[in-house]
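hey m, so remember when u said the tokens were messed up on ur end? i reran from scratch. heres the input so u can diff it against urs
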Amino acid sequence: MTDQPLPDTLCALAAGLLVLAPLAIAGLALINAGLGRSRSAAQSLVGSLAIFSVAVIAFAVLGSVFAAPGGATFSVAGKPWNWIGGGHWLMGNFAGAAPERQLQILFECLAVALVGLIPWGAGADRLRLAAGIAVAVLTGAFLFPLFAHWEWGGGWLASLGVNFGLGAGFVDAAGAASIHAIGGLSALAIVWITGPRKSKFPREGLATAMPAHHGPFVLFGCLLALVGWLAWNAAGAILWLHAAPSALALTALNTLLAAAGALMATLVVTRLRFGKPDASLCANGWMAGLVTSSACAALVSPGEALFIGAVAGVFTPLLVELMELALSIDDPTGAITAHGAGGLWGLFAAGLFAAGRGQFLAQLVGIAAVLGLFLPLVYGLFALLNRFVAFRVDPDGERLGMDLHELGGGAYPEFVIHRDDSYR
């Protein structure tokens, strides 16, 4: 890493990569829709577009102020601690910024849209469109920009190396913390506040299976996400680590290996656990592998990337089952595990395999900030928001389905959608 400005050739390459990065968002939108119920598919995809739009607008209007370099710095123990950025409203200085900074802002605009889709999927089949939009506004205006400043805008996490000699400071090239861990914690807060879908956990039995309604959507979404992730990780390595062109092929290879290792590990685990591989859990494992690569693809060797992905693939189905059966957490898309746990594991692994003990400690500090500061902050703000914009749809809306209740029509009008026995 270096503080020298990026040459024009690398800026042009990063711009080209960011054009492909939205495919990760499209892939996640398809995965969310496919893993939900058929009577909520249109609402899921319309919500994805709306959340994308309002998150970007909220970030442009207000969030970019908090994410920018500079801002409020406090002195603690004789060391400067920068907590919040100091940019311009409505990106007023964008045209005059250096090309590298312009690309960093574009990266953050795409990132904030992806953050908003993670909890949207976790609240499938009962989270109101208005609530999803409100959550995206709060995320884009304040939550994502705050952590983005800490790690990318010269904030206190990025300064751990300068202030305390902890390696290069907290390192997260493609947003395993600010996008995925924060998104996964937001998903957990959404699930806690909204509660499970009706009849998911009957009093007299175990969790009721509610299979994905469209497996091809889910699996095609995984392939789309791969293309977006390859571009995203490479662009992040250029913009935040100033990686040399010679390092980009390794970053792409490690992204592939992490996803492949996770998929195969999940396939084996579900084959041993259930007698046959589980398609939706394999999709969750694939996504967990991609998420882990966001933290470490530019920092580890191919063998380490494969191992990191395989570990993610092992714990993904086990953690999904644990949360559902032992904790009664209804997360239809597995977002809490794939994005939250996957992001935290990637950050831990990046420090574990980094050269020098100081970098490992810096990563641990960042993980502690995510869990100790952001989890209560996110839950508290969402619980307050729920008092003004009710998160959960009313029982009649859930019975009809989110498409009919919120959009007035279903995603599949030519098919008869059978009602659940539980609503008779």
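this time it looks ok to me. The chain has a mean pLDDT of 93. if urs says something different then somethings off w ur setup not the seq
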